[in-house]
TrEMBL record:
Annotated Gene3D superfamilies: P-loop containing nucleotide triphosphate hydrolases
GO molecular function, one term: ATP binding
Keyword S-adenosyl-L-methionine applies: no
Protein name per the record: ABC transporter ATP-binding protein
Lineage: Bacteria, Pseudomonadati, Pseudomonadota, Alphaproteobacteria, Rhodobacterales
Length: 262
């Protein structure tokens, strides 16, 4: 579904992404792991149009989407969430969801004055969909709560709910587990699996929690120093010498091997 070909993103003389190539299969939940500074978030930002690449190409369903701005990618069904959730804190949870779909009739003064029935019909449909999304995510009891009052995990669920308001095709999740307690992280994981299996969503997940990655993701891609280091199942990644060294360093890698008798 997504093909990244020899992608480079440089900031001055520093290459945050340095010739990365990878493929994301449609219908997969792909994990993206690597030590801090590996280039994972920068890679997300380039694919999602937040940064323009220095060189290289990005394709979605064989269409060249390199450098397209986020709003154009949004309409193609490519969405990206952030490590720190971005909600409208003074609005309710339900209102946050209802704002997501674009080109709503009520956004123009003309329609608000002269096509009130159409506006009311659209708002009713959006209200119904928002409530269905909240029920799916098991946070319907929070629909009238101000979004700013939610916990970190609840805000991550709300971000996931936004993707459901526009029927996303592929969603890039950046550290969905950051600042989230284990119970809510399991709820988020359940929602991701259901969206993947029941609605055909494709996910790419940056996460440092290996248990979460192991539960959800196949395949797993490991990055280090801006490059793709390895791709495989979670067991293959965990036993890969290059991956172990990237996380632990050569000395610790040899110590671990000695302790397990390898």
């Amino acid at each position: 579904m997504i093909v990244v070909d020899d992608l480079v993103k440089a900031f001055g003389g520093f290459h945050a992404v340095d010739g990365a190539s990878l493929a994301i299969e449609e219908g997969s939940i792909t994990g993206l792991i690597g030590p801090n500074g590996a280039g994972k978030t920068t890679l997300f930002n380039v694919i999602a149009g937040i940064f323009k690449p220095t060189s290289g190409r990005v394709f979605m369903k064989n269409e060249d989407i390199t450098g397209l701005p986020p709003h154009e990618l949004f309409h193609k069904g490519l969405l990206r969430t952030f490590q720190i959730a971005h909600e409208f804190g003074s609005m309710t949870v339900r209102e946050n969801l209802m704002m997501v779909p674009g080109a709503q009739s009520g956004e123009t003064l003309w329609n608000a004055w002269f096509h009130r029935a159409r506006v009311a019909e659209e708002e009713s449909a959006l209200l119904k969909k928002a409530d269905e999304v909240l029920e799916f995510l098991t946070i319907d009891h929070l629909k009238d709560e101000k979004a700013g009052n939610l916990s970190g995990g609840q805000k991550k669920l709300l971000e996931l709910g936004r993707t459901m308001m526009v029927d996303a095709r592929i969603v890039f999740l950046d550290e969905v587990g950051a600042g989230v307690n284990r119970t809510l992280l399991n709820t988020i994981g359940d929602a991701i699996i259901r969206l993947n299996k029941e609605r055909g969503y494709t996910f790419v997940v940056i996460e440092h929690d290996m248990d979460f990655i192991a539960r959800l993701c196949d395949p797993v891609i490991c990055m280090a120093e801006g490059k793709v280091l390895a791709t495989g199942t979670i067991d293959e990644i965990k036993s890969n010498d290059a991956v172990i060294e990237a996380y632990l360093g050569t000395g610790l890698k040899n110590k671990v091997k000695a302790e397990v008798g390898v």
